[in-house]
Amino acid sequence: MTLLDGKHIASLIRAELKQQVDQLLADGHRAPKLAVVIVGHNPASETYVNNKIKACAEVGIQAEKVALEADITEADLLQEVQRLNQDPSVDGFIVQLPLPEHINETTILSAIDYRKDVDGLTPENVGRTVQGLPSLVSATPKGIRELLARYNIPTAGRHVVVIGRSNIVGKPVAMLLMQKPYLSLPGMSAASLGDATVTICHSKTQDLAAICRTADIIIVAAGSPKLLTADMVKPGATIIDVGINRVMDGYRLVGDVDFDAVAPKAAYITPVPGGVGPMTIVSLLQNTLQAYQNHKS
Ligand code: NDP
């Protein structure tokens, strides 16, 4: 079994990004800039946002944290989104999810200028990605694809089972891995990725275990600890665990895979933490640099 070390791969990619940013500065250009909007004081969101800002600093991307109170109205948040859309010094921005219940996430995400949508969640970016047009690809699926590429794990012709159908992970990762490679987008290492046969599963799927046993690659993004057990895994399968679940004392993180039981059967497996999480953050940095370059040209 080989551990898919997202923490290590993300550090390699950050070093590559730093070189590119250093070169931009040496050529007399300004640094790329990311803004991160956070609404309220959700401790998990605070941690994610701080990690993103720290990662920006490491590669020389300027980062601005826009902290807004939990009782902000949807109209005021929309106004903030418009301000960031129009600010020429901001190349990309994200609105950290989840938002408070009184705010409609779709309304907010849809208002982001797709050219600055470095989380790749606007309807424009999702649609453009599906059609193979230049776009900013959703950060977690992009990170998963990059992780597979860096470990030379091909997807062509292989059966990928995705557990979860969210707009953030399940649907876009399924779509990315089934695409024809010629549709791969600029700035991504396409190496034999795409061309998978993909099955998407969800809570209404019948006999999930039997479907998983036919998979060469299983991507679990359900938010349910130990959902994927050893009896659901074909020997030699690749396991990508996207789940982040807080257990016990509220601080320990586990994924959706029964790691100790599944790892001995798998050829490759991601740990939690240290697998998909760091790849998501580094994809955000890659998207910010891409948005900057698009903006500049
Ligand atoms: P959502 O809650 O939006 O979606 C979960 C999906 O899993 C749904 O489609 C749901 O089915 C399905 N599901 C839940 N339980 C089961 C089950 N027992 N059997 C089959 N399917 C099931 O979650 P997200 O996609 O936003 O996130 C999923 C997980 O990934 C979370 O733990 C989240 O924290 C984590 N995450 C991690 C990231 C990272 O960088 N590592 C980034 C983003 C998310 P249905 O549609 O029928 O309800």
Q: Can you give a write-up of this model?
A:
The chain has 2 domains: about 25-115, Rossmann fold (3-Layer(aba) Sandwich); about 140-275, NAD(P)-binding Rossmann-like Domain (Rossmann fold), CATH 3.40.50. It is globular. Helix 2 (about 45-60) links the parallel strand 2 and strand 3. About 40% of the residues lie in helices and about 15% in strands. The chain has about 300 residues and is an alpha/beta fold. The protein has helices spanning about 5-25, 45-60, 75-85, 105-110, 125-130, 140-150, 170-180, 210, 260, 275-295, and strands at about 1-5, 35-40, 60-70, 90-95, 160-165, 195-200, 215-220, 240, 245, 250-255, 270. The chain has a 6-stranded parallel sheet with strand order 1-11-8-7-5-6. Strands 3-2-4 form a 3-stranded parallel sheet, sandwiched between helices. It is built from 10 helices and 11 strands. The structure holds NADPH dihydro-nicotinamide-adenine-dinucleotide phosphate (NDP). NADPH dihydro-nicotinamide-adenine-dinucleotide phosphate binds next to helix 10. NADPH dihydro-nicotinamide-adenine-dinucleotide phosphate binds near residues 169, 222 and 243.
